[in-house]
Amino acid sequence: MGQGMSEKKPVKPYPQSGRRSLVLGAGIVLAVILGAWLLWPKGEAPLPGVTYKPAYVEAAEMLHLANVLSSDALEGRAAGTAGNEAARGFIHKRFEEIGLLPLPGFSAYTHTFPIVPREADAAPIIGANLIGFIPGRTPGEGPALLITAHYDHLGIRDGEIYNGADDNASGASALVAVAEYFALNRPEHDMIIAALDAEEIGLLGARAVARMEGLGMSRVALNMNLDMVSRSEAGELYVAGTYHTPELVPVMEAVAERAPVTLLMGHDRPEDGPNDWTLQSDHGVFHQMGLPILYFGVEDHPGYHNPGDDFEFLTLDFFVRAADTLVMAAMAVDAELPQIYQLRRSPAAETDQPEGNAE
After folding, report:
1. Residue 6 belongs to some domain of the structure
2. What Cα–Cα distance (Å) separates residue 267 from each residue in 79, 298, 304?
3. Would the pLDDT of 61 be above 90?
4. Looking at the predicted structure, is the pLDDT value of residue 93 above 60?
5. Is the pLDDT of residue 5 over 80?
6. If you average pLDDT over residues 50-69, what whole number do you get?
7. Cα angle, residue 341 at apex, residues 338 and 346 outer, rounded to 5°
8. Residue 268's closest CA among 247, 289, 238?
9. Is residue 217 within 8 Å of 172, Cβ to Cβ?
10. Other CB atoms within 10 Å distance of the CB of residue 256
11. Domain that holds residue 286
12. What is the mean pLDDT of residues 115-121?
């Protein structure tokens, strides 16, 4: 979850013992990543820490990708860094493997945008979103569903690597897992799958999508955003956004009744103060455009925006259950998408902004 909007509630620092702060050379980076790729269990092999048998997602591939994205080798995936580019490369490869198409009218997944650093003497850098397309029953016609997750994180700060396993290697990996299901099981309506860059420095990837020519934002009925979906000892996954679009409450209630996690609605009311997540990740950009949103995430934990947000601390059984829940939510939204499209608001009509969350 990003820093572009107001921070979520403070959390206690995570223990720092044993943290690595060395900036790794390119050869070591490749060796570490290749080792993780080869050693992760494949096929029907038991997954460490996972007892749940998923109905919709390929758990091994999802956990594998999350493990790689959050490795020290990628040095925290800060926008504009080599680690960020490497992370994008792994997600790009998975987009290819699961058979995502580029957006209609485009020949590639990658869509770059400039990032102007906040430091006056720093040179501009280039951000890059990866956007894939899953055709529905009538490709190019009717409403579309936009599913997003950011893949960048905080990089190296004060010599320590912020790996961002939950924030947001988890959401990026779950995004691929959800996309894989619908690539194999065609949805009713077109789906746009976007792995977004530069969320941590002002939701810049989402802003680039919002103004991107040729994307077809006028067709998008709803944004479903995944950010921090893998770490909850209580087994609780929150969905925010139903306060702003109450018509989505029965849709999410039906999902919650069958979900393999405890799916709770909340964290989207102005009275929640800093715990109002309405504008605190990429979905905030689309909410301000007038789109209905559903943001899926867990509550804060000791690893949030801390060097201790490592893969080893994820609750993997919950993560797999959460990913299945995300597929179920996307299926439920897809079934109601024409009706949801009618709930879009005019951006000019959006006057009830949560206090303290504006940039």
Report:
1. no
2. 27, 10, 17
3. yes
4. yes
5. no
6. 97
7. 160
8. 238
9. no
10. 18
11. 26-347
12. 79
pLDDT cut 90: percent of the chain above it: 78
Q: Which residue has the tokens 């770059």?
A: 112
290, part of any domain: yes
Say if 7 falls within a structural domain: no
Tally the domains of the chain. 1
DSSP string, 32-71: HHHHHHHHS--TTSPPTT-----SSS-HHHHHHHHHHHTS
CA–CA distances in Å: residue 82 to residues 129, 140, 177, 292: 15, 36, 25, 35
327 in helix, strand or coil? helix
* Section 186-206 average pLDDT: 97
Tens-digit pLDDT profile for residues 224-245: 999 999 999 999 999 999 999 9
Q: What is the DSSP string of 156-172?
A: EETTEEE--IIIIIIHH
Q: Which residues contact 322 (CB under 8 A, 6 or more apart)?
A: 174, 229, 230, 232, 237, 261, 296
Look at the block and give the residue holding tokens 């009830």: 352
Say what the pLDDT of residue 25 is: 47
Distances from the Cα of 210 to the Cα of 22, 114, 196, 203, angstroms: 37, 14, 12, 11
Query: DSSP string covering 193-227, please?
Result: EEEES-GGGTSHHHHHHHT-TTS-GGGEEEEEEE-
Q: 233: domain CATH number?
A: 3.40.630.10
Question: What tokens does 60 get?
Answer: 């091994």
334: amino acid identity, one letter:
D
